[in-house]
Design a protein that fits this description.
Subcellular location: Endoplasmic reticulum membrane
Organism: Branchiostoma lanceolatum
Family: Belongs to the SPCS1 family.
Radius of gyration: 28 Å
Main location: endoplasmic reticulum
Helix content: 55-70%
Mean pLDDT: 85
Distance between the termini: 67 Å
Structural class: mainly alpha
Shape: elongated
Function: Component of the signal peptidase complex (SPC) which catalyzes the cleavage of N-terminal signal sequences from nascent proteins as they are translocated into the lumen of the endoplasmic reticulum. Dispensable for SPC enzymatic activity.
Number of strands: 0
Length: 107
């Protein structure tokens, strides 16, 4: 069971912003092309169902091409900053508050 989880976690499941934009453009182009072709073919055949079939085929094709995170959509990863060490920050803040010296209690 753990091996299956590891394999599933190893599958990349992200897209970068440019990849999302490309996927959206591909999706829109496929839908528009299939809608125009489907409308023309349905008009020629005089059957609206042909238009619907062609549009559904375009939708399925566009989903197969754009929904999975294919490598084409992961070409521009974001440059993440390295994590900061919080323990160093806490000690620096404490030293700034005390002025770098320990305060003596007054009597």
């Amino acid at each position: 069971m753990d091996a299956i989880k590891e394999r599933l976690n190893a599958i990349p499941s992200h897209m970068d912003y440019k990849g999302q934009k490309l996927a959206e453009q591909i999706f829109q182009i496929i839908i528009i092309v299939f809608a125009v072709v489907g409308f023309a073919w349905g008009y020629v055949c005089e059957q609206f169902v042909q238009t619907v079939y062609i549009l559904v085929a375009g939708f399925i094709l566009s989903c197969l091409l754009t929904l999975p995170p294919w490598p084409i959509y992961r070409r521009h990863p974001l440059p993440w900053q390295k994590p900061r060490d919080d323990s160093k920050e806490v000690s620096q803040k404490e030293s700034k508050k005390t002025g770098g010296k320990k305060k003596e209690k007054s009597k």
